[in-house]
Amino acid sequence: MRIGDVDIGSGALLAPMEAVTDLAFRTVCEEQGAALTFTEFLSAQALTRGAVKATGRMWASLGGRRFAVQVFGREPEVLARAAQMAADIGASIVDINMGCPARKVTAGLCGSALMREPDLAARIVDAVRAALPASIPVTVKQRAGWDDLSLNAAGFARRMVDAGAALVTVHGRTRSQGFAGTVRLASIAEVRATLPRHIPVVGNGDVKSVADYLDMKRATNCDAVMIGRACRGNPWLFRDVRAIEEGKPVPAPPSITERRVVWRRHADLVVEYAAPKMALHELRKTLAWYSRGLFSGAELRHRCFAETNPSALLDLGEGFFARLAVREASHGSDLGEPPSPPETKCQERHARHLLGRAEEREPCDV
Length: 366
Ligand SMILES: Cc1cc2nc3c(=O)[nH]c(=O)nc-3n(C[C@H](O)[C@H](O)[C@H](O)COP(=O)(O)O)c2cc1C
What we know:
This protein is 47% helix and 13% strand.
């Protein structure tokens, strides 16, 4: 697939996810076959004010791989300056967030709120396009619409392309849906049918398996698929999609050894690149993600809370995978998790947080 003049090859795209798609996560997904990765959304206001919290998250990629920086805001000139900052750190693509449903974003009339202001949204795309060299495409990530009464995905996407967007990603839900309910594949299909053929349309929402991936492509005719939540702890989904795209059989599920190696790679990248005060929390997240659905994963997650130094967490993970490898040798591939021990409400909440399920409970507060 080509985005403007940028050839990104085949495979699925990694969705931008706040507090998830940091350098470590993006690198692991790229190594497993993601065609393109996106940073979490960064506030254009905060970036241009030089706020350390925002600029500190503007990591380039490792190994010179292409990546997209996503920005959000509502003042065209501020977004244009933020886009230039993204270009300065080596972004190959600048993506503008027009789909975030979180109240903290829509209250400032940014994110998905821009779908109610297509004129302003078009001026933003135009300003960002004008601020960047022609070699850096500007892309837009939007939703199906604001709510059931304003399903304006196709008309809105058309305006963004006329203003200079080289690709449009559609998360097939409305802002009111948050992350609940079903994805409207028809909205994505309508965007694909409306935009000129040379503008790629990316379908997004609820793709959790190769079967979902194929369904999304078939039902919408989209040019590529973007995957978010399902690859937390399962970057092999990118490997599987790439195999399909290359006409190869889908590989067998990862063995325990492969899981350990990839988890450890992810954890080592966290230790190397995460801000020191965040490392502990980020390491707990990797363990929670990679242990999901595996035997004694719930116990591991409980034990994580008690550890307060990174090397103890690494040892905990190594021990977990070593025990699973022994179990794999005697039980074969039956590595599923038995019923968890009863959890207190607090433990449950904490585990859900680590597993990144907060958005499923509070769909409008990403
Ligand atoms: C924890 C979390 C953080 C997210 N942060 C962003 C973000 O920064 N920018 C964005 O455009 N979408 C964000 N999203 C939405 C995802 O990019 C994606 O559109 C959505 O999760 C649907 O795809 P999925 O079903 O494959 O997860 C976020 C989603 C989650 C779950």
